[in-house]
Amino acid sequence: MNFQTLRVWVVVFLIKNCNFFNISKTNSTMTINIKKLIIICLFLITGLTLSAQNKKSQNISGKVTYLNVALPNVNIIVNNNEQGTESDEKGNYLIKANIGDVITYNYVGFEIITILTEDITRVLNIEMVVKANDLDEIVIKSTNKESDYNKSKERFSTSKGLVNQEAAGYSVVYIGGNKIDLIYASLTEALDGRVAGVRLDRSTGKLAIRTKTSIFYDAPVLWDVDGVIFTDEPPINFASIENIFILKSLAATNLYGSLGAGGVIVITTKIGALINSIEEKKNIAKQYTNKTIYNNDAFVISEKEMWNSNKTIILKGFNNKQKAFDYYQNNIQPQPDSFSETIKIARLFNAYYNDRDISINILNELLIKYQKNPEIVKAIAYQIDHLNANVEAEKIYEKVFTLRPAYAQSYRDLANVYIKNNKFKRAWRMYMGYMLQQKVDSEQKINELLFNEMEWLYYNRKNQAGIKESFVPNNTISEFRKDIRLIFEWNTSEAEFNLEFVNPDKQSYVFEHNLISNKELIENEKKIGYSSKEFFIDYLGAEGWLINITYLGNKKPEPTFFKVTIYTNWGSPNQSENIHVFNFEKERDKFQLFKLTNQ
C-alpha cells in the first residue's frame, strides 16, 4: 500500500470513529478538537506535497469540429502560455498537460472553450460553437439561512388569479406587512435574509431567491404587486404593505415564464390596487406568462431498447441462462471489448434472465480490469446501485473515494451508501467531514445537496446517527417533505446535456448543463469534484410532469452513464426510491426519460 492510499484510509478512519468538531449553523461557529484536526491536516498536507512532487504531464489528443466538420488551425494552449499547438487540416491535435491545467480552444468567430484537465483526461473531442454576443453567464452561489415565519392560510390574489394555499400543493412563505421595519432604505434591504434563501445580490443590487426547490440558478425575483408585474423593486410605501407572499418552488413560479425563474414576491397593499384597470393588469401579466410550450418533440425510448446491442441480442437468442453465460465466457469475454458493452451484457443477465448474481459477477470482473479508472468505476457502481446490491456498492464507492479523496462527490456517494446499509453514524461523519474540509458556510452548490441529506438524517435518524453537533435545519419537517425529489448523477465530468421539465400545463423549462450556457457551473463542478444535480417537485398535479433530456456528448468516444434516483414522498415515513440507469451514445436527439404521475 502506497502512502497516498494509507493517507486516505487514515482520514476515513478518523471520520468514521472521531467526533472531532461541533458546528452551529445559526452563528457559523465551530468547536474543533485541535489535536485530532492537526493529525488530519498533517496527513492532508503531506499527501498534497507528495502529489505535487509526483505531478506528471499526460498526452491529450482529440479532434476539433464544427457541425461535424473538421476545424483546422484552432489555437490550443495550456494555462494561457504562448506555447501551444493548432489543430491540423483534419481537426486533430495532440498536447501535453498536467492534472489541474486549463486547456483553451480559441478560433476567430467562435466561443472560447476552456477545459480543466483531470486525472482521467486523455481524449477531448471539442465541438466549437459560433460566438453569440447576447449570452449572459450565470454566477452560481448558495446561502442557507433559517426561516422562522409561519405561512398564511388565507387565499390571496396575484396577476395569475386567486391562490388557495391549502389546495395549491406547494409552500408559500408569508410575511405580514407590519413586520417590515421602516428603518430600511428599500424593500430589498428589508427582505434580505428575512427568509431562507432570500438575499441581496451585491453584484446586481437586486433581490434573489436561492432555494433547493428551484431548477434554476440565482436570478432576480419578479415582483407582483396588487396584480401588477415589476422586474425591479416596485415604488411602494412600506406603510401601505399589508401582506407579502414569497413563492419559491418550481410549481409555484412556473406560470410566470422565464422572468419568474428566480422566484416571485407577491405583495398586497392596504389600498388594494396600484392600477385600477383590470384590463391593463391583464395586458401586463401576459408579458410574463411562460409561452414556451412543449411540442411533443422528445423520442420515447425504453430502458430495454437503450441497453440493446448486437451481442446482447445474440445472448438473448439462447433463451437459456447457462448456455448464454457459457457463450459469453468462451466467445465474448476473451475478446478486447469496450467497458460499456460489458455493462450492457451484465445488465442483460439480470433484466432478461433474472439472474442478479451473474450480473454482479460480471461487473466485479470488469471492476478489477478498470479499478484505476474512476469514471468507469462510477459507471459500474451505478449498475450495482440499480441491482440494489448495497453491500457491494459500499465497497465500490470506498474504492472511488481512494481514487478521488478530494472530490465532494466521493464524500456524498459514500455517505449515501452508508445510509442504505444502516450505517447512519458513518454517514453523518462523512457529511460532516466534508463540511469541515470545505467550511460549512461555503458557497458551493454541492453543499446544498449534502445539507439536504443531512436534514433527512436529522429528521429521520437523529438518534441512530449519533448527532451531537448543534445542527439547525433550514426547513420545518412539513416544509422539508416533497412529492418528488430527483437526483441526477453522471459518471464523467465532461458530460453536456439539457434537462427539460414539462409541467401539467405543458409549459417547458430547461436546465442547461453545457459549456456555452453554463460554463461557470461546469468549471465549479470540476474544481470541487462533483457530478450531480438535485431537483424537487412540490406537487405533481393530476396530469403529472415530463422529464426529457438532450444529450450533447462528453468529448470522448465512450458513452455517458446517468443514474437518476426518484424519491417519492421525500422526507415522509412512507418515502420510497427508484433507481434508473441510462447510457447515452447518440447526441442531439431529445429523449423522454420518464413521466411522473401520482400513479
Task: Walk me through the structure.
With 599 residues, the chain is α+β, with helices and mostly antiparallel strands. The chain is built from 19 helices and 28 strands. It has a five-stranded mixed sheet with strand order 13-18-19-16-17. The protein has a five-stranded mixed sheet with strand order 20-28-25-22-23. A hairpin with a 5-residue loop joins strand 22 (497-502) and strand 23. The longest helix is centred in the N-terminal third of the chain and has 20 residues, at 34-53. It is globular. Mean pLDDT is 79; it is low at 23-32, 45-54, 133-151, 211-217 and 439-443.
Global geometry: globular
Q: Strand arrangement, largest sheet?
A: 13-18-19-16-17
Number of alpha- plus pi-helical segments: 19
Q: According to CATH, what is the class of the largest domain?
A: Mainly Beta
Number of strands: 28
